[in-house]
């Protein structure tokens, strides 16, 4: 997924300057937060601050371009998950989990900051999850739900919450954040319990669910 975020050392002929600045901004915002200035981003992209403003008009314009790119990348990842279902696709994604670090860092910063992008991003994630689950149910990979939309929202909330807590707890306040290590540690800690819970369940009988359903009637 993060191959779309180019290394700033790649020559201009291999990546348009506009995209190179935007991708550098995604990395800088993820690492330092949205208080990072145009000069810092320009230095990371190896261009002048004037060139940043030439391409994006302002820091707000650059942030908007980054937001749009993050949405597109997340949609691409979801689409790849749909196209490569089964254990092989999941294991391949786990093997390359560090490649997701720049985007995960940007998403974490966005949810921490709040605002319209965070709300829109979350709703997009819910919609993607709803579509993914529906296709999984149709293919026989997932069990049906009494309320598919509610299940998609709950799973998204659990996923985002786990990521926010995991990334926050795995970064040290007195050192630059190492999001590559943090996302690897998070994947290592959560993959087994998550798969176990989703595959085998938690309760050994239906008594709690049946009692809840009876109370709703």
Automatic annotation (TrEMBL):
Alphabetized Pfam families for the sequence: TetR_C_25, TetR_N
DNA-binding region as annotated in the record: 37-56
Keywords: DNA-binding
Keyword DNA-binding among UniProt keywords: yes
InterPro entries: Homeodomain-like_sf, HTH-type_TetR-like_transc_reg, HTH_TetR, Tet_transcr_reg_TetR-rel_C_sf, TetR_C_25
Domain of life: Bacteria
HTH tetR-type domain segment(s): 15-74
Name of this protein: TetR family transcriptional regulator
Organism for this UniProt entry: Speluncibacter jeojiensis
